[in-house]
Each structure stands twice: as structure tokens, then as C-alpha cells.
Amino acid sequence: MSERPTVRLLDYGVGNIHSLTKALQRAGLDVELAPATDGAGEADGLVLPGVGAFGPAAQALAPVRDEIRDAVADGLPLLGVCLGMQLFAEGSVEGEGRGLGLVDGKVGPLDADRLPHIGWNTIEHARDPVEALDDRHVYYVHSYALPDNPHTVAETTYGQTFPAIVAFDNVIGAQFHPEKSSQAGRVVLDAYANLLEAYR
User: By Cβ atoms counted within 10 A, which residue in 74, 153, 160, 161 is the most buried?
Assistant: First the structure.
């Protein structure tokens, strides 16, 4: 297809919208900014951005939670970034509210001497579809992370080892910020772009 895929970037008041939009556009995608209450819509894919706390984000997504889950189950490619990936879980000890329940368990705090975890850190044990990220550095800003789960395709260690990237079916998530991680971040965005083409 010659047309660029269009992704819906949900704005629920806690996202790093501007820089993520630019990064997605550089990856060859058209971006449609939409309020969280618009849900999955008619786009080729959905992006959950991430800066902020789990509770307010889960509350913002609550009216469209089931719609998003159904759309993803029907094959809509989903990308979650930082908090957006944490919303894949059932919930979080950080705050009330239900996540999307795509990953079992609850988001928990990092077991580290200094929080939040801010700055560059190394990707470990990266495998398909992000094997090119192994031993590369990416940029983090977070204090919480997904629990260990079978969908983890890359890890990072900061006090503890935690899922850096999850990928399964038509879903991919990054705990770090691809839009702030230079060419290493582009690996995740390209993997998502490939998902979009595969599911169009």
C-alpha cells in the first residue's frame, strides 16, 4: 500500500505528546491526536503515551477500556510507551484503577536505592522483534515497571531486572522513551511500523 499508516495517539493528559508525535512521523506514520475518550477509533493503530501516574491515566481510559481491549483482540496494533506500557497490566500498586489486562499482574515499584530511574541505561537480552537493541542504551524516566511476564523481549537492570520491552501478537510496549532514545528508540518504532503493515 502506498498510503502511510495512520495511528491514533491518545491524549489522556499525561503523555509526552509533541516529541512522540514527531518520532512516530519520522518512522513513516501519520499521527492523529485524539482525546482518550475517543478510544480506538478508525485508525490503523493505537498509541498510548506515557508520562505521569497510573491512577489518573487508568481513570481517563476507563470509559473506553473495553473498546480498546476489543479492538486489540480484533487485531488493532497497539504501542505503549513508558506509562502506556504499564497500562497493559491489570493494575498498579501506584494507584487505583484497572489497566487493560493484556499482561497478567500488577505494576510495582523498582527496588532501587534512588528513584525515579532517570537517564540512559542498557538494554539486555533483546530478541525478536527488537534484537538490534541488545547492549544499546535507551532513555528512562520511571519508578515503576511491569512484573516479570512471558511477553518480555528485552530487559534492563536498575536495582532489579525489569521488562524493558514486551511484544506479543499485535502489541508492543517500551518502558523507556523511544522518542528520547535517538536511533536506538527508532528500533521500537520501526518494529511497531512493521506490525501496522502486517495487520493492515
Answer: 153
Which residue numbers are catalytic?
A: 82, 177, 179
Interaxial angle between packed helices 182-199 and 17-26, expressed in degrees from 0 to 180 and rounded to the nearest 10: 70
CATH number at residue 29: 3.40.50.880
User: β-strands 78-81, 171-174: how paired?
Assistant: parallel
Q: Which residues span the domain enclosing 104?
A: 6-199
Residue 100 near residue 88, CB atoms below 8 Å: yes
Count Cβ neighbours within 10 Å for each residue of 34-64 and write b for 16 or more, e otherwise.
Answer: bebebbbeebbbbbbbbbbbbebbbbbbeeb
pLDDT in tens, 18-32: 999 999 999 999 999
Q: Say whether pTM exceeds 0.85.
A: yes
Handedness of CA 104, 105, 107, 109 (dihedral sign): negative
